[in-house]
Amino acid sequence: MTRHGGQKTLKRLNTPAFLQIKRKHGKFFIKSSPGPHPSRFCLPLLHIVRDLLEIVDNHREAKKLIGLGYFKVDGKVVRDKSFPIGLMDVLSIEKMNKHYRILPDSHYGLILHEINEKESTFKLCRITNKTNIKGGHIQLNLHDGRNILIRVNDPRSPKEDVYKVMDVLKISVPEQEIMKVLNFKENNLAIIMSGKNIGQIGKINNILKRFGPKASTVSIQHNGSYTKTLYDYTFIIGEDQSEIDLPKIDN
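User: That's the sequence. What structure does it adopt?
Assistant: Structure tokens below.
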């Protein structure tokens, strides 16, 4: 990393391979701000505006539009040009009536998939951890950095605690109201979010749990064949059918 023009930047050679950077944008590239998504697996907002959507031609114009508050992520205005946008985030450009969901992809790592306005009102979040807090209530820690509090009436019999790590919540944005719980279990639909099979979608055929997430594996049925991936690479997206719109796959 270096500083160029007073801003934190990366040399092009050090950028993640999935970033679609055009040669005309020079030797340096904007670095994502610290945030909920891993720095090596997110898209800076300016990169999306300038390079992927091509709304503007250069850094200066993109910075101006972002500063004017034209872009929302998960229903909230974002004015930070380096804001990290990652897996399952929803980007909305209301002046253009355009909405996109960030999805894993086998070619580019992450892509913007255009969705309709109705679908832009919710997102899927995987539970990465659970913690008990004062009063016996439960805090769910989600993959995108947000936390959701589950209030428990009787800590000795927490009937409200129906959530497990690796389950996925369908939540409204920006309200964060839980609309549905998608359990991490066999026969549910999943997408592979990392690794050599990233972007592959199919039904979970088998879950093999061993000590530690790196040792546990999941088998996913896809187009009549089976793909084995790491436990931690599996993201539930539905039961009998997907809760989110997905890119059409050319046969």
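Residues 1-7, 9-15 have pLDDT under 50 and may be disordered.
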